[in-house]
Structures are given as C-alpha cells and as structure tokens.
Design goal:
The complex is a heterodimer of chains A (112) and B (115). Chain A has 112 residues and is an all-beta fold. Chain A has no helices and 11 strands. In chain A, strand 9 and strand 10 form a beta hairpin. Chain A is globular, with a radius of gyration of 13 Å. With 115 residues, chain B is mainly β. In chain B, the strands form 2 sheets. In chain B, strands 2, 4, 5, 6, 9, 10 and 11 form a 7-stranded mixed β-sheet that branches. Chain B starts with a strand and ends with a strand. Classes of the chains: A mainly beta (112), B mainly beta (115).
Chain lengths: 112, 115
C-alpha cells in the first residue's frame, strides 16, 4: 500500500529562524499533497497544498516544494514563530484514490 | 461560515458498548470522510461518503459503520467497543470526492476513550 513518512520526528528551531520539514512518499501515482498543522487537542488544520504539475507553491510565510523524481515533499516556514509549534503532517492522494494517506508527523518546537 | 463541526468533543465508553459520533460538513460540501487518529500517529482513513453513498472504506472491521444524511451530515457508529478503539476520530469535509484532488478540511475531532 501507499506509504508516507517523515524523515525527522522532532525539530527544534529558534524563533525567527526558518524551518524545513521533510516528507517522503512511496506511491508514484500520488498527484496531490497537503500539509496540515495539528496543535495539541485539535484537528489538523489545512496549511497549503500542491498538485503534481507544480514543483513549488508559496503561501503566507510557507512554501511547499515537490520533487517527484525522488518522491519528496518539504514544507518551509519562514521566520518561525512560537505559534508555529505543532505537529506537521503531509498527506497524499491520487486522482484514482478516495482517501488521504498521512505520514507519522513531525513535531516542531519553536524556542523563544 | 462555520467549519466542520463534530459532536461530542469527548466521550468515555465501556468495552462492549457502542458509540455514535456526528459530523456536520462545511456548508456546500457534499463529501464527508472519517479518520481515526491514535495518539502519536497520523490519521488513518475509515470511510468516505459522497452524496449519501459510501465511496471508500479503509482497513477497519465491520464493527465500524457510517452513513450520510440528505443534509450531508454524517454519523460514524462503532459497535462492541474495544480498548484499542480509543482514539481521536476526525471528520473531513470536502467539496467533492477526495479523488478529485480536492482540499479536505478537518473538524476538531471527538476524543473517544474506551475503559
């Protein structure tokens, strides 16, 4: 079956620094990806998405990069703030599938 | 507009009991999906419903069932609860079928504890 995994389970950064969270996926048919932020006790919050016909997409303080050759996805957060502390999940979906597959998550801690 | 709403927020049940969880999708969204999130893991797909029909099912036993109503709200039912069913149950709302590369927005979840 499909597999989505993260390289690092935890990440600590200083406030103001940039953060990079990585994600690997194994299903070459995956063509749509979403990054979610999940704070303790809450549901996943949509951050940004990207389709496979793109290799980069930017939002407010966030950028997602997609490398289909090596099946790798990353989330870059600029000027990380304490409110960015959370668990980040990448989720993937294929055009023929009806579910999202989630990785195990990366816990981001921002040090003031 | 209200986001995805789930009820109840917390629930404690005894082994062997059954439970019903409820979800109201974002207004205008016709697809509801259910996910189970065990502590420390990512969400796992249980069901997807679209236009009141089941359109996908994950690797969960028959004790899990769901349905979608004409107003697109949904219920997840779990029978004969086991300790291992303790988890955060998440409902995701999307405009159309997930397979159409459509954004999925999650509710806050129902925290189920089985004792």
């Amino acid at each position: 079956g499909e597999s989505v995994g993260l390289h690092l389970p935890t990440l600590s950064v200083q406030e103001g620094d940039n953060s990079i969270i990585n994600c690997a996926y194994s299903n070459s048919a995956s063509d749509y990806f979403i990054w979610y932020k999940q704070e303790s006790g809450k549901g996943p919050q949509f951050i940004i998405d990207i389709r496979s016909n793109m290799d980069k997409r930017q939002g407010q303080r966030v950028t997602v990069l997609l490398n289909k050759t090596v099946k790798h996805l990353s989330l870059q957060i600029a000027a990380t703030q304490p409110g960015d502390s959370a668990v980040y999940f990448c989720a993937e979906n294929s055009n023929t599938g009806n579910q999202f597959y989630f990785g195990t998550g990366t816990s981001l801690t921002v040090i003031p | 507009d209200a986001g995805v709403t789930q009820s109840p927020t917390h629930l404690i049940k005894t082994r062997g009991q059954h439970v019903t969880l409820r979800c109201s999708p974002i207004s205008g969204h016709k697809s509801v999906s259910w996910y189970q999130q065990v502590l420390g893991q990512g969400p796992q797909f249980i069901f997807q419903y679209y236009e009141k029909e089941e359109r996908g099912r994950g690797n969960f036993p028959d004790r899990f069932s769901a349905r979608q109503f004409p107003n697109y709200s949904s219920e997840l039912n779990v029978n004969a609860l086991l300790l291992g069913d303790s988890a955060l149950y998440l409902c995701a709302s999307s405009l159309s079928l997930t397979g159409g590369n459509t954004e999925a927005f999650f509710g806050q979840g129902t925290r189920l504890t089985v004792v």
